Every structure is written in structure tokens, then in C-alpha cells.
Amino acid sequence: MTLSSQPITETAVVLSGGLSHERDVSLRSGRRVAMALRSRGVEVIESDVDSNLIGLLDSLPQAVVFPVLHGEAGEDGALREVLSLLGVPFVGSVGAACRVAFDKSIATTVVAESGVATPTQIALPHEIFRELGAQALMAALADQIGFPMMVKPSRSGSALGASKVTRPEELPSAMVGAYAYGSVAVIEQFVSGVEVTVTVADRGDGPKALPAVEIRPDSGVYDYAARYTAGATRFLCPAELDPAVAEACASVALRVHDVLGLRDLSRTDLIVTPDGVPTFLEVNVAPGMTETSAVPLAVESAGWSLGKMCADLIRVAARRGGRVPAEPVA
Could you name the active-site residues (predicted)? Predict the structure, then answer.
């Protein structure tokens, strides 16, 4: 019997919601994952993250958790460390890897050291920005990074608090917007080119890069509204890339997944420059699963079904937790 054909005897607990700014998106992702798992005959319990969660998991000795929490509460690794402490198997990366991946200033540094192209980037804590003089620092940023530039929180998702800055007079409000979502702002070179995102999934036989999704927002900037408003962005999957460039994007996503120590599922966002170089922007350890998210599109383009992929990830987590025997994948 292969891993994919094994019956699932565990209960999948899909965690979504939380208290981050991305709660609504997380709930939408959670409903999609729960529906996909049920389509494969998996028993699913949907749960928020609250004071009842540990009691719920205690009552389900065969539970495998599928976290679909976006933002700091779900992607900074804290929840996953609690699950590890409780001995509860879960889908996705461990806490330590999540902490590195979620912080854009740290993840970009690690990825750059592995040889992957990244934008020039500076991270500024709010205290430093305030104490040393905003005006002087903004002038230095303009000199070092140049315009246009991107300003965003170091620890946030869904492009919340992110903005493209094309003129010096736009920089103060952009910094305020970034600090509204976190204590550290990242200011980086704006990279022009084709925006793509590549999902990496490991269904038990090693990480595989799915077809790249090309992102074409009507507004020209893939911000929160462009991500989660139906019809605001055009997605092409597979992306309209030269085959060699598409392969390079897949290789970068697999490299990011590896050097950051991720497992099961990740999504790497890239810009392909006019000369065909994939440039790393950020990585997501709990990528969106909504009706406007890229992962389900990539799964379909790969010839998989979302339900089967999610069910396979539950099996992998259960096996890793010692709840089913290890068997080879066909």
C-alpha cells in the first residue's frame, strides 16, 4: 500500500482565524482546506486558536493539525512550538524555521548568503528611526536604496503595511504605514520585472516545485486589495516564462525551501528581471488557500487536486508523528 492509498484514520484539525490582521483571510483559507479534505473522506474539525484548543487536542489522541493561520500568530513559529511541546503532529515547518522565514530582514539575508539574487535591503527598528532623526535617515535611505523603493513591515503578511515609494515626499507616510504593522520596517530596492510565485510541496517523496503562477495586478502593485479582491488580479498558471527561466524559478523556490529548513509546504515570491534572473522577495510557510490564492491554481496546473494534496500532507504529518507506519511512496 502506498502512502497516497493508505486510509486516513486520524482526525484533521484545521486551525484558522487567530487574532492577527489577516484573520479574515485565514478563515477563508481554513474553510477551503477543510472542504478539500472532506472531499477526500477525511474527518475534519475546524477550530480557532483560543483557550479551548489544548483541551480539544487532548480529546483527540489521533489528531493531526493543519495550521492555516496567516500573520504573526500563525507564521512566527510560536504555535508550532506549542504543538511540538504537546506531541501533536502537524502539517508544515517547525517553529525555528518559521521564525527565520517570517522575518523578511532575516530570511532575505539567509537566502542571499545561499547565492540567490535578492534586493538591496535595509531594516530599521522604529526606535532607531525615531531617536536618530527621521529626516536624516530618510535622506540616507534615498541615497542608499534609490527610487522607486518598497517599504514594508519586516514581520507581516498579505502585503499589509507595504507600499511602493516613487518620490521622497511619499516616504514618511510609507514608513508610518509599515510601523503600524510591526516595530521593524524593511526598505528595499524595487525590482522591476515579472512577478511570480512558486509553491513547493512534499507529499512524502521529497519537495517538488509546482508550476509558477504569474501575477498581474490591475493596479500594478500586488497589495492586499489586489490579493483578495476577486477580479483585481490576473493569474496565469503556468506563468508565461521561457522554459529555462521557469526552471530557474523552480530551482530558486526549492533552494529557499531547503536553506530555510522548511518542510511540507511553502510558497516563494519572486520577481523575474528583464534579463531572466529570479529575484527573491519573500517566502510563506502558511500560504493562502482562498479562491484568489496562488497555491490552489498551482496545484490544479500540476494535475493534482487540492483535496488529495492536503490529504497527503496529513498522512505525511501523521507518519512523521509515529501514528502510521512508514511506507514508500509509489
Answer: 22, 158, 293
Mean pLDDT throughout 212-220?
Answer: 84
Catalytic residue among 20, 156, 158, 163: 158
**From the candidates 16, 20, 22, 26, which is the catalytic residue?**
22
Domains assigned to the chain: 121-189 (3.30.1490.20), 192-303 (3.30.470.20)
CA–CA distance, 298 with 210 (Å, rounded to integer): 6
Mean pLDDT, residues 161-185: 91
Largest CA distance in the chain: 66
Q: Is 22 a catalytic residue?
A: yes
Q: Per-residue pLDDT for 223 more than 80?
A: no
* CB distance 142 to 151 below 8 Å: no
Q: Which residues contact 71 (CB under 8 A, 6 or more apart)?
A: 18, 20, 21, 22, 23, 26, 156, 157, 158, 160
Per-residue pLDDT band at 1 (split at 50, 70, 90): very low
Give the whole-angstrom CA distance, residue 306 versus residue 221. 28
